[in-house]
Amino acid sequence: MSERGLNDYLPVATLLRMLAVLLLILAPHASHLPVWESALIVALLSWRGMAARRQWRMPPRILRAALVFAALGGVYASFGHVSGQTAGTALLCLMAALKLVELRERRDVMVMVFLMYFLLITHFFYSQEIWTAIYLLASCVAITALLIECQHLGALSPRQTLRKAGVMVAQALPLMLMMFILFPRIPGPLWGLPSDAGAAARSGLSDSMSPGDIAALIQSDAVAFRVRFEGAAPPPDQRYWRGPVFDHFDGRTWKHGWTPPRALSADAVRYEGAAVRYELTLEPTRMPWLLALDLPQARDLPPDSQLDDDGELLARHPVNERVRYTLTSYPHYLLEPELDVRERERLTSLPKGRDPRAVALARGWKAQGLSDPAIVATALQMIRRQNFVYTLRPPALGTDSIDEFLFDTRRGFCEHYSSSFTFLMRAAGIPARVVTGYLGGELNELGGYYIVSQSDAHAWSEVWYGGSWHRVDPTAAVAPERVERGLDAAIGSGEGLPAYLARRTAWRDAVKLRWDWLNARWNGLVLGYGPELQQRFLERFGLDDLRSMILALTVLLTTSMSIVGLLLLRRAAPARSADRALREWQRLQHRLAARGYVQRGDEGPRDFVARVLGERPDWRAPLQTAADLYLQTRYLQAPDAGLLTALQQAVRAARLPA
């Protein structure tokens, strides 16, 4: 079909609206696509609009094939593959745009419209928040309006198609809600996720720590997790949320050592003081660590997880979707009362030939005969009394990063302090390691829970002496406000405070907390509607097993579809006449039709009755009376209530014996 022929089915105005709807659907993907692909999609949409307006010919088949292969090559070059969540979505978006250059027949247009519905689903790969659902619902209405317009060209205005599409989507919502509530849920995803599932999730903490890593993470105010305490929350100086633990240092970066994680044995930890029980909802991280208040109880852990000998709570698989779990932690504990010779060597090892000034300083403390706790106190006193600055804008460090920080720049963020302190302890012969996680959290009074954001990311040190590991936070020595009141209280206005903290006001905070509460409810009741929540909800209505749920779903679906069918039949039925006389005559016609006498189209009431009476003279009395009353009421004079009543009685009294 030529472009002119296609315009007979798809006018230029409709095609332009199709391009606008496609742009509406693809726009949120711009942040996930390579720049070249976004530019190419915009170019294709622009060219297709101009081609329709100016009646340009469509590209030949060989050029279309070349574009397809170029698109495949471009996606492969950008992602290294063409399958999976990110690359597959990018390829689908590009192919949808390329489909525009071969809109030649009605089938192509329908394929394009239904492809838009499919594209909507891909947005949930990257965001499942409330605004995403609202945006996609509006996009669904726009696609449905486009579908209606393509089926009824010229019959409805754009406003009318939008109204009809909105009504159709609104009518589908109760059925959607019913299916959502009653359809049996199974643990885990309904299908196998691609290898890069969760690629869009904020990774948060990583499996290593270098200067600047935590400071970069602080720039984001995205939620890391939410926590609800059973009872009073622990004080700020006890709200250390434990994550990855690093015990290997190469001179710049802290990483995990080469030893595989081992489950923490029962005799390796002793809990002291009061327990803290809480429920934590962790956002996707693509990492195996499950954040926990330092230190979680080794028993009653989440399914498919273990507490290793470093105190890390590890899931069996990376956290690619939001998870919720309940834990009991003890802020006071004794961990690993014994360290063997090999462990001591590993936890005091340092890269050879690096940072000689820091090594000499720490060995000097040891040579003075100071005990391990005294060396820890001396190092903290040095940080507290000398001109160290807590800043998000530290200068770049060279090869000997520890020496440069401790003796030259003295400006850094928590990773600089924890890394340097741990290095000093190791140089003094004290086993030490770096722990990363989060510190603090903001209370949302509306929901009664704490929000821990990426901006609460933190790093501290652990040193071993006296038969246990001890948490030491060198950041607290230079900026105690960080522990007690949060990041914005510890960072000066000229030290790189993130914009979202610098612009904080009371009303902004209030709006943010209310929006987070709404998101938390959405996450818990909608996104978290799994088998357990479904069972608890349906037990209130006596549906406590799978068979009952399936039966209820079947009954409700059957009832709903029956009601819809009856409503459609009622709409399709001929409208009931408002003329009472005509309704009575139609009732008499139906009675005669049942006896085999049907009024022909060229017959009036008088001729019809005359023909019937010619064959059945025994019906003369009732038929003639009813016909005369009908003619008088309908044609001879204005309707009269008495005549109408007489006609109704005559029709009812008309007995037609066989």
UniProtKB/TrEMBL annotation:
The keyword Transmembrane applies. Residues 406-476 form the Transglutaminase-like domain. The chain crosses the membrane at residues 62-79, 85-102, 109-126, 132-153, 165-183, 549-569. Keywords: Membrane, Transmembrane, Transmembrane helix. It holds the Pfam family TgpA_N. It comes from the Bacteria. This is DUF3488 domain-containing transglutaminase family protein.
